[in-house]
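User: What would this chain look like folded?
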Amino acid sequence: MTYGVIITILICLALLPWTLYFITYSKLKLVHIKAFLIGGMGWIIALILRTPILISASIVFSKVFQVVIASLLAGVFEEGLRFYFINKFMREDFSAGRIISMGIGWGLFEAILTYVISMISVLVIILYQIEVPDFEIPSQKELLMGGLIGAYERNVAIAIHVGFTIIVTASLMNRKWLGFAIIYHSLIDFIAAYLGLILPHTYQNLWIIEGIVTGLTILLYMIIALILKVRLAKAFTNSVIPSIFYRE
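Assistant: Here's the prediction, encoded as structure tokens.
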């Protein structure tokens, strides 16, 4: 396979599963598209607001402290803005479909602006033989192996964003869930980033990290099921647990 084919496959693997799910259940109704775009804008604004702090931290602090700061900022800014956007733009209709659409938009915008752009950049560098300091062109096998891990990571990250959107919606009734979302989001980011920092950069270790993050994601959805079942079902217009995964 050529580099172009490999990168095309990787981008499709990163974007298509959740995109097709969104199209299938939403049928591209305007209310879902609006919620999707609100989520995307939320992620972009959260990134812009914390970037100056991240740049300053990269100059002043060690790598470990940079990981701690970046993780905390991700939790505070993303979940804080998620709460603001839900409270401002979604309060009139807490239907499961709109909430999920917002979460998917949040995650897919992140995937496009990080993973997809980086893959396209690599392709441009290879095709036009551009010399970039400290960048070594990977072999086709290396690109495929590393890219598959990245594509899987993006799909899990979108699932995480959907989960936190549900949690933060529930926090409109009980603010403790907003605190939980901030802490749990920061914890996931810290574990993934810290392990990536201290472990040798091998494919096996990267898959181990993704396995841990996947386990934390499963735990997140178990907590969501408990919230919907026991305490906060009234936060959604469709209160039974299965409805949160459909288009009502």
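Residues 235-248 have pLDDT under 50 and may be disordered. If you want, I can go into more detail on any region.
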